[in-house]
Every structure is written in C-alpha cells, then in structure tokens.
Amino acid sequence: MIYIKSEEEIAKIEKSNQIVAETLLFIEKFIEPGVDTKTLNDEIENFIVAKKARPAFKGLYGFPAAACISINDEVVHGIPGRRKLRKGDIVGIDVGVELDNYYGDGARTFCVGQVEPEWLKLCKITEECLMLGIKQCIAGNRVGDISAAIQTHAEKNGFSVVRDLVGHGVGIKPHEDPQIPNFGEKGKGPKLKTGMVLAIEPMINLGGYQVYTADDNWTVKTVDGKPSAHYEHSVAITNGGVRILTKKS
Q1: Domain range enclosing 35
Q2: Are 159 and 222 in contact (CB under 8 A)?
Q3: Residue 81 within any structural domain of the chain
Q4: For the chain, how many structural domains are there in total?
Q5: The model scores a pTM over 0.90
Q6: pLDDT per residue as tens digits for the range 41-83
Q7: Nearest to 159 by CA among 122, 134, 127
C-alpha cells in the first residue's frame, strides 16, 4: 500500500527529516582518524534525543544501534563498534529519526582525510546519482524513471549499482511502499503522485554490484571487497514540485 500524505502530514514528516539533516551536519566534525564507530553512534543518539526525538533505527527489526555506520566495502547496515576510522577510509552514515510518530531518513558518505581519487570520484558520482534520481520525482512519472536516471549515470562513469537493496516510501512508517530500485527502465513501475514521500538512496560500488550479508546478520558488504558509497534524501512530491525534506532549511 502506497500512502499519499496530506500537506499537514508532509509538514510533520519534514520536521523529522530536518533533524536527520542536522544530525548529519553535526556528526561531520567527528569524522577523523582514530575515532571509533561506537563514539559516532553515541554522539548521533545523544544529538537526536536532545532534539526530543527518537533514533528510529534503534530496535527496528532488531537493529542494535542508533545509526548504520558502514566503512569502505561495507555497503549499508554496518553495526557501530570499536572499529576505528583510518585516514583514507570512506564511511557511510545512515540516520533515521522518529518525531511525534512521523519518520525521517537520510544518509551521506564521508571521507576520512584524503582518500584515493577513484574513491573520491565514487562518492561524487553517487551523490550526483541521488540528485538525478530526485529530479525524476515528478507527479506523472514512474518509479522506473528514478531508477533509470541513477543507473545510467553510475554506469556511464564506470561504477555498478547494488541490486539487492532499494529505496522506499517513508513517513508514516520507516519503510513503506513503493520500493525504489536504483536500476531499471524508464516508464516502468508505480506511477508517482502528489503526496508521496520517498527515500531515494543510491548505493553505488567501485567494483561489481554483487553483495553479501556478513556473519553479524546485518552488515552488507561487496563481494569483491571494493568500496561502496551511499547517499540518501527523503523527498516529497508536492503541487509545487519535489521538495527535499532532508535538506537543512
């Protein structure tokens, strides 16, 4: 079931997403060599709670932490712990917030100091894929238009698109229909309508698109061990066009 939100509901969902945006801006100052991922997670949780909101991922489907923190070949769903960031790493941080029963979701990949040029390009192209996908979030388009825009840009630049994980609707629940693959054909899939709120989240790999789930039953990693980048915005399709809810106003 695809939820069509009212303007009032979108305004409440936006409040959650603004906390997501603030959290990702806040945590950037902690991204440096020697910091462990548990410290990052604790800072994120404390920041969200101080906003009188709740980390939406903590306990969701049994996930044990407030944020998903994924390093290098970890695509998504990395569990924070004692692993320390090193110079040259890239680290994806995915944050969910629940405020007054409405949900926000966003992610960004950070560079730890100077990284390899190819890794930097991977991050740049993944963020560009996100923005190109968002441009397709127009009432009357279809989900496949988002998917095709992301896939075309990633593959044109020599990268691959993760097939096993998708974007999704968001707002009333943390994960809603429709699923939004990052690969696909124009003109295919559910039609986009005013009132939809969608989490667009390309996951793009430097090597092949194949992934697997690690022994912790959460962390998704690339099969070939090459790095992956992840960027995500939650957006609303409105009468005035697409609105990025996770962009700090």
Answers
A1: 7-244
A2: no
A3: yes
A4: 1
A5: yes
A6: 999 999 999 999 999 999 999 999 999 999 999 999 999 999 9
A7: 122
